[in-house]
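Students often ask why inverse folding is considered easier than folding. One informal answer: many sequences map to the same fold, so there is more than one right answer. In these notes we will look at a single instance of the problem. The structure comes first.
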């Protein structure tokens, strides 16, 4: 499916999507760190920067992440050569109040991270399909943080190597609602 854009926007946004086919082509740690650097500069409420990231690229760490994914994600994510787990701090540092915007801010950081990956020739696929309590335990996540997503990272692979026909059929950029469907002027209509 070819995506159509109403306006000229940056290429990284035009080209980014969430594939499931990863190649075994090596990725550079420098590129992963640059992705985290991009995420570091995301805006946040009160400049709180409530995110933390767990980078997994060594074999033991990769296997640990794979062990907490749900089976439907393991079918394809096992081939990813890196993962970044995204966490959000639940409370503000400045007053210890609930940070209702932490997940929003962590999501913004994820967006920056994914676009930097796209710029560097890497593909990313964020997943909510993980065993939350098991992940919390195995990743040693403290109570004040919540694991929001696990991102599979690598170079784009061959869709024909995916485990099932259903996965092969889904392996293309997703459609988007028309611009007119997602915004209103003045108030909700």
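Output (designed amino acids):
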């Amino acid at each position: 499916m070819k995506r159509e854009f109403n306006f000229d926007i940056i290429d990284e946004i035009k080209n980014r999507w969430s594939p499931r086919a990863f190649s075994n082509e090596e990725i550079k740690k420098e590129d992963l760190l640059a992705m985290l650097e991009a995420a570091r500069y995301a805006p946040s409420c009160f400049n709180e920067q409530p995110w933390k990231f767990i980078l997994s690229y060594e074999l033991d760490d990769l296997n640990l992440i794979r062990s907490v994914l749900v089976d439907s994600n393991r079918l394809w994510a096992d081939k990813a050569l890196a993962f970044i787990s995204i966490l959000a701090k639940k409370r503000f540092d400045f007053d210890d109040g609930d940070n209702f915007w932490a997940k929003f801010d962590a999501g913004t950081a994820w967006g920056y991270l994914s676009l930097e990956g796209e710029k560097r020739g890497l593909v990313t696929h964020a997943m909510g399909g993980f065993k939350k309590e098991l992940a919390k335990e195995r990743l040693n996540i403290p109570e004040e943080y919540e694991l929001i997503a696990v991102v599979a990272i690598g170079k784009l692979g061959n869709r024909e190597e995916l485990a099932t026909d259903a996965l092969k059929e889904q392996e293309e950029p997703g459609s988007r609602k028309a611009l007119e469907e997602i915004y209103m002027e003045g108030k909700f209509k």
